[in-house]
Give the backbone structure.
Amino acid sequence: MIALNQLSKVFSAGRPNEFVALEGVTLSIPALALTVLKGPSGSGKTTLLSILGCMARPTSGRIMIGDREITSLPEKFLTAIRRKTFGFIFQQHNLIGGITALENIMLPAYPDGEKFSALKARAYGLLDLFNMTSKAKFNVGWLSGGEVQRVAIARALINDPEILIADEPTAHLDSALSYEFMEIMKGLKEKGKTIIMASHDPIVYESGIVDFVVAMRDGKVIR
């Protein structure tokens, strides 16, 4: 589904502080599978995820999603692809404080101009999927760590994306919540989602539901 060809990312190119975050990454990521990018901090995992999700551009190389080359598309097209194709689960969750769980879930869908009642119903459906309906009107600051994680996953699903991208999703969770997170990912994979994660957590990359593990170090794929 996603093919990367000789992908590189260089920050501050030509300057004394030049840093090569990715170098010559060639990789195929299959559809309907759970792929984990594994490696230590600084290995390039997060940079690769941000480029995969159209949140950053590579310095060189090509990205194909299906039969479409996206590397050279103008930003307005990338924005549309980012919103429709990908759902993002961030390490810090990035929920908006001061508003409810329901409102946080609905936020990514507002730019599409969908009828409010239909959007609200879909958000409630996602809350129900994660047994969170009773917390819909709660300010996110009142939720537990596991509840915040489930709201973040529901928000990532609100636009019904084909691909879920998760960056170190268990970094701030205890073991029990990490296993719970992987069970949720198992259910989503069974529903036909393609899932790409970056993690150095063995609970993630050693999980039986993971189809492929890509080992990275120093901006390169090593296995």
